[in-house]
Amino acid sequence: MSEQSNRRILLIDDTPSIHDDFRKILTPARAGSAQLDEMEAALFGSEIKADRPVFELDSAYGGQEGLGKLVQALRDSRPYAVAFVDMRMPDGWDGAKTIEHLWQEDPKLQVVVCTAYSDYSWDELLDRLQAHDRLLILKKPFDNIEVQQMANTLLTKWEMTERASIQMHHLEQLVDEGTAQFRQASEALQREIDERRQLEGQLVQSEKLASLGQLAAGVAHEINNPIGFISSNLGTLDGYIKQLLEMLDAYAAASRSLETGAAAQLEQLRARLELDFLLEDIPLLIGESKEGIGRVGRIVKDLKDFSRVDTNQEWQWANLQLGIESTLNIVANELKYKADVVKEYQPLPDIECLPSQINQVIMNLIVNAAQAMGPERGTITLRTGQRADTAWVEVADTGSGIAPDTLQKIFDPFFTTKPVGQGTGLGLSLSYGIVKKHGGEISVRSELGAGTTFRVELPLRQNRPAA
Ligand SMILES: Nc1ncnc2c1ncn2[C@@H]1O[C@H](COP(=O)(O)OP(=O)(O)OP(=O)(O)O)[C@@H](O)[C@H]1O
Ligand SMILES: [Mg+2]
């Protein structure tokens, strides 16, 4: 803030003699008075009077000229604090019009209207200018001291207003800064809350998987035994039944040589028991049971993989793209009628992994993508790339997409939206477990009706303690 006070006054009057009067009143000969002050100081040792009011007076002889000076002064950053404006100026603008123009350019200007008589009543004038707080009236003929005091008071008022507005501006700035800091802090807080929520979600997810994994391992172990003897018994039963059928055929042939009464009795029995139907149905029933138990066996195997028991596979350096290609060959049939496959591979180094498990992850993702297609043929895009110490694979489809509230459940074991028999809901939870075991991440983004992209990120090398 400038400490230099503003002493600048503009006088607008068409009568030259008024300018002389004002000059005498407001700027008494400085040189003479300064000399007097200095002599007084030398003689009596008193200090030089510093507070003698000094004004800087500019003259204009018409409204337009006055406005020109005011505009120039603003441009030079040396604004006037006060203008004395004559009300009656026959050529050009009158006082009221001049004041309107001055305030349009500089609303802070303090104005004194000088007049002996006016074309307006004072009420009219005040109403027209709408600025009762910036306007004083000085009636001619005026008193010298009145002019001086008006000039003094208005300069002080201008300065106080200026200072208040600078302070107000400063305060507003402080408030703005405070608000910005507050906003930043609350944004940071929100980010932290979101991160925490996500971490908690992940933690819950991995704990849930871990405990389900143990449960699954236990259940798998318990089921494995009965599955074993049921399927072996079914095999044996199949053999026995075949033998029995052979025997029945032999009996049927022998019965033809029996006496008529006994043969008729047997025939009756055969009809009542619907033996022909039984003979047809028994092998079918056994076949279905074998298939059923085979399916249970496969689920149990998935469960075991999911719970990471039975893992005696070797960590190897393997090429992800080769893995994807061999997986594509295996699922080719599944894809053939559903989607075109687009490959966007970037070169990748070999990564340290359990290749068969990684292939299983990729297979689950590709099969899911194919199953997400509607009646129309879609596209599955496979992408690979490297970022810092990780390799990534993306499987993107143009399928049904996943609703936001479903999205949180898809990694849960047994969560499926597919019809019974088509999905067990283990594919993704299994994949999640495998990726975690590799120290990697699996993520998904999806838009309902547009498609889904799964992304798997795997570290290039494993930080395992030496076996
Ligand atoms: N690409 C995808 N597009 C749309 N939905 C998907 C996609 N991948 C997974 N889902 C949803 O996630 C659910 C769980 O998938 P997950 O692979 O775990 O089980 P599944 O495919 O239903 O059965 P499974 O893989 O055991 O045969 C699916 O039922 C489906 O609702
Ligand atoms: Mg699946």
From TrEMBL:
The keyword Transmembrane does not apply. GO terms for molecular function: kinase activity. Residues 182-209 form a coiled coil. Residues 218-462 form the Histidine kinase domain. It is an enzyme of class 2 (transferase). Its EC number is 2.7.13.3. Keywords: Coiled coil, Kinase, Transferase. This is histidine kinase. It comes from Pseudomonas ekonensis. The lineage of its organism: Bacteria, Pseudomonadati, Pseudomonadota, Gammaproteobacteria, Pseudomonadales.
